[in-house]
């Protein structure tokens, strides 16, 4: 079949990779001049989510606007926003959290196997390294972390629970004062460079053939007809032709993997997705004192802020702001940007004092879609020729690889290797 993939982030490029492997011809349309320029660019490096990373559960968005819940919540007072936050709150209980994670788990395993396969097959080197250290501030947060620890035991994920003393002994850059409650260390937890991985995967596809990349082209509309699917391309900004006829590419199916823009592309087709935009921030800072830089990637567990080394800089990521859905394309008010960046600076000073030169840091922000049940949107929606691979949340770079495999299996009409209940839970048409 001929398949158009909209979006050249990790989700789009991974989908193209899987579709090609399944024997389809693929055209990826990306509005930027190259791939990996959206949320994929700003990742903090954590490859696969543990139960401590997922964006649902006991510690997530617990206290509304308070940063202890991981998110600055500014959704306004619409009924829709209230319902969204309320749905996330139903996953605070440990049973609901465990049930949801159990649905996600097969996707994580699938993503891991796709990653290992691609890595081995093409000898990909994308700055992989090991070592994740999750830090928990207070005793309240520590008790809310227990259901996640229970899941680590249940799924036999190798990890060490550390007292503050053990943690400071293992990572000497972490200060013992002010006191904190504890830590969880994953020696095999992987960190890597997501945009580098995506660019390498594109290079592999360029070499193998079968996937055409139309970069610098923006899809302005998706058309679904009974026999064909098509996308309309906006004129190139430098296109001086007077006719400015709409350029159309048609295919047998379209996969929308356009990150946060997925919502806007599907809305004219009457498809409303159960998601909200989440704006994430990063500070890319020069190293201030080399001896203060932690060996592991540090994660402030409840605040969901990661501090990771990327070559000669430190990247501090998090500061999520949940907004009203209509604000997707509007800039964030300055005061909220400052609040989000202040949280990042604070985390850096608390957990890695002296490591980052925050005053010289460059700020970046990226949009992600978050679903009310914390799971991505993957599968066919509205029409058998239309698919979505989006809303992987802020812990979703490698997850998109597993989702891509599912979409390729669905388009090829082959038996998916994920359990039926997981496929149902990922269905983009859910309310
Ligand atoms: C600050 C930050 C830190 C993060 N940290 C981590 C982490 O440590 N671990 C983790 O697993 N995940 C992390 N994430 C999440 C992860 O980066 C995302 O889940 C993943 O990159 C999403 O990829 P995507 O392809 O769906 O979206 P994107 O990367 O946003 O790609 C969508 C692409 O579609 C293109 N597009 C949109 N509309 C159109 C159109 N109309 N026509 C053509 N092209 C279009 C865009 O230009 C873009 O390139 C983080 C995200 C952020 C923002």
UniProtKB/TrEMBL annotation:
FAD dependent oxidoreductase domain location: 2-409
UniProt cross-references to Pfam families, sorted A to Z: DAO
Signal peptide: none
Domain of life: Bacteria
SUPFAM superfamilies: FAD/NAD(P)-binding domain
Keyword tags: Oxidoreductase
Name of the protein: Glycine/D-amino acid oxidase-like deaminating enzyme
Species the sequence originates in: Paraburkholderia tropica
